[in-house]
Amino acid sequence: MAVYAQSFAVTGVANVSAKDAGIESTETEKRRVTKLQIRVSGAVGNKIQLWLDREKLAEWYDYFFLTEASTGSTNTQMCTSRILEMETNVEVPLGQKLQVAIECGATAKNLSESSHG
Fold first, then answer.
1. Percent of the chain with pLDDT over 70
2. Residues linked to residue 9 through DSSP beta bridges, in sequence order
3. CA distances (Å), 1 to each of 29, 31, 82, in order?
4. Domain extents for the chain?
5. pLDDT confidence of 74, banded at 50, 70, 90?
6. Do 117 and 3 form a contact (C-beta atoms < 8 A)?
7. Distance in angstroms (rounded) separating the CA atoms of residues 64 and 52
8. Using CA atoms, how far apart are residues 15 and 104, in angstroms rounded to an integer?
9. Whole-angstrom Cα distance, residue 58 to residue 51?
10. What is the model's pTM?
């Protein structure tokens, strides 16, 4: 099984759960996602989710992940005291899709980064 990285991005929508395009296994290329790197455009209490088709595998609040938002200091440093990678180790069965989603409340934020298999 080859190791690769795939970038993803999800544009958040207020009061909606939005998913990325996902990763699928094929007959010739089985997929396993070993880790996720996630960055949010800001932390406001939205939920980051990992889905395998219709089954929710995991859910975290956006406060846990790196954000593009400023720390509030005069030199606008980025906050780095958050999770850099999430270990997932998920086999993607043939015909199913693994997706990352952001479930936004009233304040929409976006997701970006990559998954590794």
1. 82
2. 112
3. 8, 8, 30
4. 5-116
5. low
6. yes
7. 21
8. 5
9. 7
10. 0.84
